[in-house]
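Thread: quick sanity check before group meeting

JM: Hey all, I'm pulling together slides for Thursday and realized we never actually wrote out the predicted structure for the chain we discussed last week. Dropping the sequence here so it's in one place. If anyone has concerns about the input, flag it before I start.
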Amino acid sequence: MPNPVVRFEIGAKDAKKAQKFYADLFGWHVDANNPMNYGVVDTHAKGGINGGITAIQKGMPALIIYVEVDDLSAYLKKAEKLGGKTLMPPTVIPNMVTFALFADPQGTTIGMIKSDHPSAEAKPKAAAPARKAAASSRTTKAAASSRTTKAAASSRTTKAAKR
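JM (edit): ok, ran it. Output follows.
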């Protein structure tokens, strides 16, 4: 299977200013209307790739490319055998993406996106330590569960009131 570059991510000290700069410069549509203020970039390019613009994390590089692969764990093992280092194991951001990060032998960070994920084109927020990503995932699931429970209770109350 070929492994194309499917996404880019620009890290900036001031994400909002960077999002405006690239939108104005290249005519990209940048949508940061989400809880993470992650700028999802649509370049409107045929044959090109889309990406994201986010606030840079301490120690993170300013640019990451993401390569689409079919097995994140297998490619992380292969990267390690070739002298690389896993920075973030396979991480799921619910309803968005499954991804992992590694450093090549020179220290360059490269991202990988799982190809069979429902949204392989969606990009995760800026890489954070795996513990933070996992905690965020648990919080998101708990909030969604809470909303579902409240909606169900509200629905039962409304139905009972109509009787």
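AS: nice. Confidence is low (pLDDT under 50) at residues 118-163. The CA atoms of residues 34 and 40 lie 9 Å apart.
JM: adding both to the slides.
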